[in-house]
Design goal:
about 20% helix; alpha+beta; 7 helices; HIT family, subunit A; 19 strands; about 400 residues; three-stranded antiparallel beta sheet; twelve-stranded antiparallel beta sheet; globular
Length: about 400
């Protein structure tokens, strides 16, 4: 690499202070992708950041979606993802700060960093830039069009995919962070949810963390992702359908039902965690805010302040079930950008296929082929085990 220049945020670069003293510093990577540093409150890092001086290939073309006529689902065919990094050695970690030996994705030291994925499943094109996007103003297609089944139908996979680096360390997960760092990540999630929701053609924003090789993780670096979809996902559409068949206060009723049951795991002033009544996975916990909020951007300062240590405690309790870290998917379900915001409540769905210390649940015939789930562990029994595990976990510090 060349000797780095340094980027000092100009007045119009939107360097701003977010909640809890977190500072947002946006810049660009060498190929034009967005990179945003989120500095911890009281960070020791300087405001100046190195310029990305790499010579990068052009970004891949935006993927194409194809419709499965039997289900109406849209499948993004993103061939560029075949070439993404796969379990690289520590000295070539693509999410670590750049060094002369490691031309990684992030040119300087950081606390938390968010950047556009080099091999995205959706984007980089947005609805305004392509004529066959689902919600493009200059196209005849829209969300109603996506709901209609047909043979051989395709659309451009517009949207955005971002990587969220929780730490510059090579290994770890969200649960290994400090409460201060966890709050920085929560501020980043909320900020990116608002920004991505404002992009043309984006209909839903989904922050998530995959943890563990058993889940399919290809980088041990502590990180998550955010997908901004050009449609309402099938899972969320089913929630909207359930609310339409019952009532818009469905999530409030679920919370009241679970808080009175033996499946409760953790309770705070603003959040409650429980094993759901009809849990599918050997380990499954839902975390809901007590008031209705559609997404992370709508949470209050008090809700974010409690969420940081409570979420860390929950994740550490999951790890305390066994003698080794538990693989999981931590999925933050948010309301669609334009529809159903009074019906779908923000909530975390944390799932793991681990059903014993040395056993995983595989989705075989009934689950994979028919979508008909068979649970191995009664939710009440798993909730009791989690409560016991949580008694061994110290308060996050």
């Amino acid at each position: 690499m060349n000797t780095p220049e340094f980027w000092t945020p100009p007045a119009d670069a939107e360097t701003v202070e977010l909640g809890a003293g977190v500072v947002k510093r946006p810049t660009r990577l060498a190929d034009g992708r967005e990179l945003i540093y989120y500095d911890d409150a009281g960070t020791t890092l300087p405001a100046e950041r190195a310029v990305d001086a790499r010579a990068l290939d052009a970004r891949p073309a935006t993927a194409t979606m194809r419709q499965d006529v039997l289900t109406g689902d849209w499948i993004s065919i993103a061939a560029a993802r075949q070439n993404r990094a796969f379990l690289p050695p520590a000295h070539l970690d693509p999410l670590a700060p750049q060094t002369p030996e490691n031309p990684s994705e992030i040119p300087d030291r950081y606390d938390v960093a968010v950047f556009e994925n080099r091999s995205p499943s959706f984007g980089p094109a947005l609805a305004a830039a392509t004529a066959d996007a689902p919600a493009a103003e200059n196209a005849p297609h829209g969300l109603d069009d996506l709901a209609e089944p047909g043979l051989g139908r395709t659309r451009t996979s517009v949207g955005r995919c971002e990587v969220v680096c929780f730490s510059p360390e090579h290994t770890g997960s969200f649960g290994t962070q400090t409460p201060t760092r966890a709050r920085t990540v929560i501020e980043a999630w909320a900020d990116r949810t608002a920004a991505l929701s404002a992009l043309p053609g984006v209909e839903q924003v989904f922050p998530f963390e995959n943890r563990g090789e058993a889940i399919g993780v290809t980088l041990p670096h502590p990180h998550g992702q955010i997908y901004a979809y050009p449609y309402i996902t099938p899972r969320t559409q089913r929630m909207l359908d359930a609310a339409a068949r019952t009532s818009d206060d469905l999530f409030a009723r679920i919370l009241e039902f679970e808080r009175g049951a033996e499946r409760m795991v953790l309770q705070g002033e603003h959040w409650s965690a429980f094993v759901p009544f009809a849990a599918r996975w050997p380990i499954e916990v839902h975390l809901l805010p007590h008031r209705h909020v559609p997404d992370l951007a709508a949470t209050s300062d008090a809700e974010r302040a409690e969420l940081a240590p409570l979420y860390l405690r929950l994740l550490r309790g999951i790890d305390a079930l066994y003698d080794s870290p538990t693989p999981y998917i931590a999925a933050w379900h948010q309301a669609p950008v334009h529809a159903g915001r009074e019906a779908v409540r923000l909530h975390l769905q944390l799932t793991s296929p681990r059903r014993a210390a040395d056993r995983l649940k595989f989705l075989a015939g009934s689950e994979s082929a028919m979508g008909a789930w068979i649970a191995d562990i009664p939710p009440e029994a798993q909730a009791e085990r989690l409560r016991e595990a949580l008694t061994t976990v110290a308060d996050p510090a």
